[in-house]
Design a protein that fits this description.
heterodimer; A: 285 residues; alpha+beta; Nuclear Transport Factor 2, Chain: A; five-stranded antiparallel sheet; B: 415 residues; alpha/beta; four-stranded antiparallel sheet; 40% helix; Latexin (chain A)
Chain lengths: 285, 415
């Protein structure tokens, strides 16, 4: 008798417990005394929100974010491969895009874009393919670019060589000044190193990109030149990236080399911990 | 060292004449022996070169006018004398110094105010007060509430009279790090006053409607970007049971609140807060909009991305007025591009940029304010949040053209 009562009681508690759990939820919290029918509408709209997980496939609207995010990845690829202190690429426009599932391995985007070399202010149309691999392990996207030769052949050799010679033996870069500073200013002397940091950051931005990110380099916290090694200028820098989608500011340390002949080679990267934790003292309780 | 040299140069300039140093470079010459040093001295005697030696103790610093650059470089290369370009454009450096010094000095009135620079919160608040003092018939200031840290939330009202006229709401600075927005808000305020009576579109608008402008929706955050962290986004709410500070004010509105496109983790940038309208910065606008009851356009300004967006952010369901909103957006971005060719994309929030829930214009639209828009100003990522100060005025000017299109359409399409 006692046991049965206990079981019934237990079963009742279970039911009560699950009831109380289901009634707690953000959508049902009425926030405003004067709010009226809204909460009821909210619930149906929440259901629709779940459907948005489906990725855009087929012909893409070039002005919407799926094509734009894939195109940004191409920018990072071009900067990493072809960028220098005097050559930097930006995404100017997406003309058309197409996305398709690649059976069990990922999603592929085909894009027609306009790329812009920022320093010389020249534009060119390019075709590109971006493949985002799927799977638990986050692999970097793969990029292929075609019909983009002119802009990549742009010659900045003499400036690159002059900078290289200057900093190979005589001068040294070492600054705690942020690039740009809070007001968007970069000293003319430091501009090539701001550009170089963007190129090096492209290594990380490319590697970390997915269909749910949109990276730009927000700021260089500091950059230091280390001893020249194998005729490569060597640098250690701390950069702040910005992901438009999450709005987060991931911070990374990079060790990289550069020469006009070899371009940028990233030797080591380290993600720094999220700064939020140190923002506030724990509230005494 | 650099600063001392430049300061000395600036002093010299101030003392002597209004000389122009455009294209002048400063070389640092490192002669390796007395023979080389003597060769360098030879150049001093060639008056045509107009060289200005700043120091004769090795290394030798010399200002080289633009017309002599080639000659001097060839000479030094010919004799294998090592040198570096320390300053590539002396005038540019001096201009920058002058700008920095000028921005430190407070303006006495809104005509001498430096619109081409970023300002502190107190400078912006002083500007607001100056504007009201100078134009009492057209502008008034209301405090609609207080921030988490107790700062006043100021709204400027531009009005030519009437009683509770249909109104336009513009806000900037809801996200602290988007500095070009607060700076543009300052320009807009001045523009409303200078264009009233001179620009037919603006004059017609202000003759029949009121304009409300909240320049710094998030003053605590803005202050924090000056003192601590230039990349701060949220307000400065001390979240309970968390060591992380701040709520994303554009995820705190009651439209799809708490849904996908916002975060329930206080340590993230898009944390939506404990409940809709929990934040005083948001609540004060909600109360204002409700009690006014006659706002016909609501425009929230952000950066960066170069976009003009309309509802919704929290759902893919198209807004009832999507076709019209889209048409007006197209007209607005065309007007914007007419000034400098700046290219803007436009569309609903959720399709153009990302899903975001609890956003301001979703709430205002659902409240019946048809012309609800969000701008994302310059640029598209090269400078991002840290847009150079010299782009403030061009950005504000082109954006103003787009704003006028929206305001004009609102005026001509009463509902």
């Amino acid at each position: 008798m006692g046991l049965r009562r206990a079981i019934v009681l237990f079963a009742l508690m279970e039911v009560t417990w699950s009831l109380s759990v289901t009634t707690i939820g953000p959508e049902t919290v009425s926030t405003d005394a004067s709010a009226h029918p809204e909460p009821a509408e909210e619930n149906t709209e929440q259901k629709e929100a779940a459907e948005e997980d489906v990725m855009a496939t087929g012909e893409l609207n070039p002005n919407h974010y799926p094509a734009q995010r894939a195109a940004k990845v191409v920018q990072h690829y071009l900067n990493l491969r072809h960028g220098s202190p005097y050559k930097l690429f930006g995404l100017k426009e997406v003309h058309s895009g197409n996305a398709e599932e690649v059976a069990d391995s990922g999603r592929k985007y085909q894009l027609e874009i306009s790329v812009h070399e920022i320093i010389s202010n020249t534009k060119e149309k390019c075709s590109a393919e971006v493949f985002f691999p799927s799977g638990a392990k986050q692999l970097s996207p793969q990029v292929q670019v075609s019909s983009c030769e002119e802009i990549l052949k742009l010659d900045a050799k003499s400036e690159e060589e002059a900078l290289y010679q200057q900093y190979k033996t005589n001068k040294t870069v070492c600054t705690e000044k942020r690039l740009p500073d809070s007001y968007g200013h970069v000293d003319p002397e430091m501009t090539p190193f701001w550009h170089l940091s963007i190129v090096a950051s492209s290594f990380i931005m490319l590697k970390e990109s997915t269909e749910n990110t949109l990276y730009n380099m927000a700021q260089v916290a500091n950059i230091t030149q280390l001893a020249t090694e194998n005729d490569q200028l060597k640098f250690d820098c701390h950069v702040l990236l910005h992901d438009m989608v999450s709005q987060e500011i991931p911070q990374w340390k990079l060790l990289f080399t550069w020469s006009p002949a070899e371009g940028v080679k990233v030797l080591h990267t380290e993600q720094l911990p999220h700064i939020h934790q140190s923002e506030k003292q724990a509230k005494p309780n | 060292m650099m600063k001392k040299l430049v300061a000395f140069a600036a002093l010299l300039v101030a003392v002597l004449s209004k000389e122009d140093f455009r294209g002048h470079q400063v070389f640092r010459i490192v002669p390796k022996d007395d023979v080389q040093l003597a060769l360098v001295r030879v150049m001093e005697d060639i008056l045509d070169l107009e060289l200005d030696f700043w120091s004769w103790v090795t290394p030798v610093d010399v200002r080289v006018p633009s017309h002599s650059l080639q000659v001097v470089k060839s000479y030094m290369e010919r004799h294998s004398i090592k040198y570096f370009t320390m300053i590539k454009d002396l005038q540019a450096l001096l201009d920058e110094e002058r700008r920095q010094m000028k921005s430190a000095a407070p303006a006495g009135n809104t005509d001498s105010f430096d619109y081409t620079n970023y300002h502190t919160l107190s400078q912006i608040y002083s500007f607001q007060d100056m504007l009201v003092v100078e134009n009492p018939k057209l502008v008034s200031k209301t405090v609609i509430g207080h921030s988490v840290e107790g700062r006043p939330l100021n709204v400027l009202k531009f009005s030519t009279g009437g009683s509770n006229r249909p109104a336009i709401w513009i806000d900037t600075g809801i996200h602290a790090r988007e500095w070009v927005t607060q700076a543009s808000g300052i320009v807009f305020a001045k523009k409303i006053l200078t264009e009233y009576g001179t620009d037919s579109v603006l004059t017609e608008i202000l003759n029949r409607m009121d304009i409300f402008l909240e320049m710094v929706v998030n003053p605590d955050g803005y202050h924090f970007t000056h003192t601590n962290n230039r990349m701060w986004r949220k307000n400065r709410k001390q979240n309970e049971d968390s060591s992380c500070v701040g709520v994303d004010l554009n995820r705190n509105w009651n439209a799809g609140f708490g849904g996908r496109g916002s975060s329930n983790n206080p340590c993230t940038e898009t944390y939506h807060g404990t409940r809709a309208h929990s934040e005083p910065e948001v609540k004060s606008i909600v109360k204002f909009v409700r009690s006014h009851g006659n706002i016909k356009a609501f425009i929230s300004i952000h950066s960066y991305s170069q976009m003009l967006l309309y509802p919704y952010g929290y759902t893919r369901n198209p807004a009832k007025d999507q076709a019209e909103l889209d048409q007006v957006a197209q007209k607005a971005v065309t007007a914007l591009a007419s000034l400098y060719g700046t290219n803007y994309r436009y569309g609903s929030i959720i399709k153009t940029i990302y899903q975001s829930s609890g956003g301001s214009i979703d709430w205002t639209y659902k409240k019946g304010i048809k012309y609800s828009y969000t701008f994302e100003l310059r640029d598209t990522g090269h400078f991002g949040f840290i847009l150079p100060a010299n782009q403030i005025v061009p950005t504000a000017n082109e954006t103003w053209l787009a704003l006028k299109v929206i305001m004009d359409h609102t005026l001509k399409n009463p509902y």
